[in-house]
Amino acid sequence: MTIDLTRRTLLQLAGATSLAAAAAAAARAEGTPQGGEPTYASRTPMRVGMVTLRVKNLDVVADYYRDVLGLTVMERSATSAKLGTGGIALLVLEARPEAATEPRNAAGLYHTAFLMPTRKDLARWLVHAASHRVQLSGFADHLVSESVYLDDPEGNGIEVYADRDPSQWQWSEGSVKMATDELNIPDLLSLTNPRVSDYPKAPDGLRIGHMHLRVGDLAQAESFYHGTVGLDPTRRRNGASFLSSGRYHHHLGMNVWQSQGAGRRDDSTTGLAWFSLVTEKQELLAAQEERLRKGGAQVTALANGVEAVDPWGTRVRLIKV
C-alpha cells in the first residue's frame, strides 16, 4: 500500500495544528532491546500481565484491537474475546451490551500502554496507523520513551510506545526524569519506509508495558499500590504518580486530573474489569498477600495468586507465573 505520510497527515489524525499541540494533548497521559529479548519492562521482579475490559459492542472493539494494533484473536465467542501476540494473551474483552458507559471523571482506566519491542516497530506501527486513517489523540517524547495516544471505539485510552535504552534514563534521588516534549516524527520515521505500510501484525514481543489509572486520591492510591502491593515510587508531579518494579520508569501511572474525589466504581458500567501484575517469585507473591490481608484489603484467592480490590473498586490480580 502506497501512502502519503507527512507531518501534516499525522497532525490531522491527531486533531492538532502543531507538534506542540499534539504533545500538550498527550501531556495528561503520561530504547530498544536487540533481537527477541524481552524489554526491560518485562525483566523486572513484577510486570504487567494482561488487562480485561468490559465493552458494549464486542465485535467492534475486538476488530479495532485486531486491525489497529495488530493483535491476534486467540479466542472468540458471543460473550468474550481474547487477543494477544506470539501466543501470549494480553487483552480480554467481555461483552456487556446493556452496560452504561463509565464516566471519564470516575476512577478506572486512563489508558493501557502497549510497549513495542523496538523503536523501529513503533515507526512501522505509526505508518500502519496513518495508512488506515486511525484517529490519534496525541504524541509525545517522554525522555524515557516515545509515545502515541489514541482511544478505542468505546473511549478506552491506549498508548503505543517504545522505550529509550535504560542507560539514557536520568535518575536523581530515586526519581526518574520524564517530560512531555514534542515527538521527533521525522527521526522516528527515518527507521522505516513512510510510504509503504509494513506492519502485518503486532510483533511477537509486544507487551503491556504499563497501566495508567484514574484514581480519586493520590496519597490513598500510593498507600495501596506502593505500601500494600509493593511497587516503588519513581516520580510524582502535577497530580500524577508513577510506580514500578525493578527501576523501570513506571509499570503503573495514576492521576487525579479528571477524577479527584471520585468514589467507588460501578461494576455494571463499561471500562476496566481487572489487570494483572505477574511475578516469577513465590516469596514476592506471598509477601504481597500478607500485606494485603494485614491491611484489610478485599482479597480473593485464585488458582495461581490472589485478586485484590483497590480503594475505588479496581481489581488487580497478583499472579505467579
Automatic annotation (TrEMBL):
Keywords: Dioxygenase, Oxidoreductase, Signal
Matches recorded under InterPro entries: Glyas_Bleomycin-R_OHBP_Dase, Glyas_Fos-R_dOase_dom, TAT_signal, VOC_core
Domain (VOC) ranges: 47-163, 207-321
Residue runs in coiled coils: none
Any one GO molecular function term: dioxygenase activity
One Pfam family from the record: Glyoxalase
Domain of life from the UniProt record: Bacteria
Lipid metabolism as UniProt keyword: no
SUPFAM superfamilies the UniProt entry points to: Glyoxalase/Bleomycin resistance protein/Dihydroxybiphenyl dioxygenase
Keyword flag Signal: yes
Range of residues in the leader sequence: 1-23
Protein name: Ring-cleaving dioxygenase
Organism this protein belongs to: Bradyrhizobium neotropicale
